[in-house]
Amino acid sequence: xxxxxxxxxxxxxxxxxxxxxxxxxxxxxxxxxxxxxxxxxxxxxxxxxxxxxxxxxxxxxxxxxxxxxxxxxxxxxxxxxxxxxxxxxxxxxxxxxxxxxxxxxxxxxxxxxxxxxxxxxxxxxxxxxxxxxxxxxxxxxxxxxxxxxxxxxxxxxxxxxxxxxxxxxxxxxxxxxxxxxxxxxxxxxxxxxxxxxxxxxxxxxxxxxxxxxxxxxxxxxxxxxxxxxxxxxxxxxxxxxxxxxxxxxxxxxxxxxxxxxxxxxxxxxxxxxxxxxxxxxxxxxxxxxxxxxxxxxxxxxxxxxxxxxxxxxxxxxxxxxxxxxxxxxxxxxxxxxxxxxxxxxxxxxxxxxxxxxxxxxxxxxxxxxxxxxxxxxxxxxxxxxxxxxxxxxxxxxxxxxxxxxxxxxxxxxxxxxxxxxxxxxxxxxxxxxxxxxxxxxxxxxxxxxxxxxxxxxxxxxxxxxxxxxxxxxxxxxxxxxxxxxxxxxxxxxxxxxxxxxxxxxxxxxxxxxxxxxxxxxxxxxxxxxxxxxxxxxxxxxxxxxxxxxxxxxxxxxxxxxxxxxxxxxxxxxxxxxxxxxxxxxxxxxxxxxxxxxxxxxxxxxxxxxxxxxxxxxxxxxxxxxxxxxxxxxxxxxxxxxxxxxxxxxxxxxxxxxxxxxxxxxxxxxxxxxxxxxxxxxxxxxxxxxxxxxxxxxxxxxxxxxxxxxxx
Length: 711
Hints:
The chain is of the alpha+beta class. It has ten helices and 39 strands. The two termini are 41 Å apart.
């Protein structure tokens, strides 16, 4: 086997099976990137009522999650809150789906309370549900001229015990729709039922974050700014002023003067970044004036320290989203911060603490990935991040270092996320008020909700993921064996062709040598010499010409593997004329060849001449009477049939009367040559030898040669 490759130099590096196996395995891994990712996602989609609101939380600190449902009983038009198997009806005229709810243990009794904002006529309430007592309390926040109708209308900021009384205070902001409505940061003391408000913001609040300092929590926030309309009105859609960035202490008093930004349609967003234990506020400002080319599709990033001093101010050549979900901060093991910001052009930019761009991160199939959730989804102690795209239905969950990328599609008509919660286990295996079965939740760990649909996710690590490594190994081995086997077959085919070519050359040389043997040539020359001696010059010249023609044809065809039937018959005619003269008219011959359409049929050189020679040498030479040799060429259905027939003594008598054993070399060469051509060119040539009898006595031999061809 190795000889096959060595003879034809097939052990080149570029034909190595190992190289092909490595290449195909690499391509397989490249185009299936999740092959090494052990994490998977299963989804379950359920419909929901538009006015219903569903969530999950662990309220009692146990191993189970409680289902929290807000809904409406349409028979009596009453709203309710349902936690597990407990249902409490609320005061009338409340709405929940558009406002935020949050869960925390505010009084330190190890039971978490559910807080949600509700509206009743022109009043805004911060309501709470106590899971321990199964009661709902209502806390008045202020008056509204028009109902809040946006997810940005009210946001929970943080909960912090600023006065050390063992009860946490709630910080939140409200964006009223009219100039006289609530538009400020609030701190509500649950235990003392007291409310503190910041001074009214001059525009809608874009977002707020917490800075944890030695003096207590500080709130940084930013506002939206628009140019005033010529006809000033109380409707904020027409009366926005300059956007700003501000910082408040725990009592909601200004820490340093507001930073205001000029420009049209300006939005300012802010976030807190901790560097070496110190707080720094990052502000993101959209282009100062989109009509000026140097500011178009650019964003200004400014960094302020805790005293309000500006540390950095840099433009980046990108247009960023200024929504809360569009930017976030991560810290490595050394507490070094990295800021991530979503771009309108696509992808996420990664910055270091000095506002230098480190990396441009992109997810396949997602243009503008927004951080929807960050937490330990599967309960393995490491954080995961859920990204969604507002413009496409693609979602992805990754580890905190952006590894282990797992995708899933939001079902239609799933729009924006209204609620996201981690689910561990649920006690009751029954249906809740909005028709969701608890049975499947025991295997699911993340709940997503929109206006019309609820989506349960099972994000998990596949236990038998190591099987994939076996699959890759099997793939590598199969490619290696396949390439090796194909390479072996190709090399073997080349070797066989090489051997056939060599053998054909050998047979061609042997065949020529056999036909033009010195014995035949000397006999022919002696016969011609006797004619010259008798001074029969014309006949001597005639036979000398025929011998020369015979020798010329033999030499010319010695380099050919085939020749035409016309050329073979011409050779046989010249040969028979010489042999008839040599044997003094001891036999006559006849050639029947009346179909010129088969004249171009390719056949082996000397194939007819060999059997003509045998007929004369072994059949007619020792015949007591005059012999007869007949050559017939017939056109048959799939080729041509050549018959060489004599009335000689027959093969058995020739063998018995032979003084010198015959080698049968000529017939063997012809048959071997024919077998090689049949195998090489997929031919169907054959030779049949038939002994003829008359009155049970040998009466000659008939040879039938079949040559296949297509006209």
